[in-house]
Amino acid sequence: MRIGFALPQFGALAHHPEDVARFARQAEDFGAASLWVGDRLLDPVEPTVGYAGADTIPPEFRAALDPFAVLAAAAAVTERVQLGSNVINAPWYPPSTLARALTTIDALSGGRLLVGLGTGWSPEEYEAVNVPMAERGRRLDETLDVLTAWWTANPVEHRGEHWTVPASYVDIKPASRPHPPVYLAAFAPAALRRVARRADGWLPIAVPPAPFDPEADVVRPMELIRETAGREGRDPAALDAILRVNPYAEASVEDIATVLARAEAEAGVGHAFVDLIYLAKDVDQALDLAQRILDRANGD
């Protein structure tokens, strides 16, 4: 299995942005396969919707670095690791601005970008960016249209429900061909169908030490995605999953390694990354955990 890690972007780690580059370099030296960012804007004082089914939002989200800047910093100091987002909340951004940022990061990294997109869940964050949350699904679909045009056509032109891109020359294209792989976070049936129609893969999640069921959590949703992709005339085998392992503070290295091993053996997952947001208080601790997880997963 290829194993990556979230970059130091949230919580205590975000207070030392100068350590982003150091973490990226050393994680690559340890053998990490990928480095990842997320996308949080606010931690509302009185949230309408809590995080992951709770009534509150973790205090770690009170400190957040910009995902595009963090990815660019990692791209500048690494040579091999892939650079991913899990996830960029696509409806928050004008698609042309998003396309320019992602294209720049892919070009800076020499074609190492994995684009993970989602819609988010916080009404207050949508209020802050002045985007109606009820439109998030349609806006994500239109964003995918613009990204495809931006990456594969020249001149680029788009006229849709929410955005217009006048016919324009865009000479900077991604280093990836035909464009960076696009993965979508999805749980509802309609969102899983969007993965099948529009994406290169899916972004499931595991949260050790909570129970992880590879069959229910990965295999069956991927079967639905691939069946739908086949009906849409796409190659089902071309779609894959990249698992996000988001351990709670009480999780151990052994808990994390067990999830990784089961995901590979029982669900065929070939790529996963571990988010250390709740486990590490500083970058040195994060690097120590990353090395221990890699050693344990590799049987060392």
From TrEMBL:
Every Luciferase-like domain range: 15-260
Keyword Hydrolase (UniProt): no
Superkingdom in the source lineage: Bacteria
E.C. numbers: 1.-.-.-
GO-annotated molecular function: oxidoreductase activity
Keywords: Flavoprotein, FMN, Monooxygenase, Oxidoreductase
InterPro entries to which the protein is assigned, alphabetical: Lucif-like_OxRdtase_Rv2161c, Luciferase-like_dom, Luciferase-like_sf, SsuD_RutA_monooxygenase
KW tRNA processing (keyword) present: no
Pfam families per the UniProt record, alphabetical: Bac_luciferase
Protein name: TIGR03619 family F420-dependent LLM class oxidoreductase
Provenance organism: Streptomyces lonegramiae
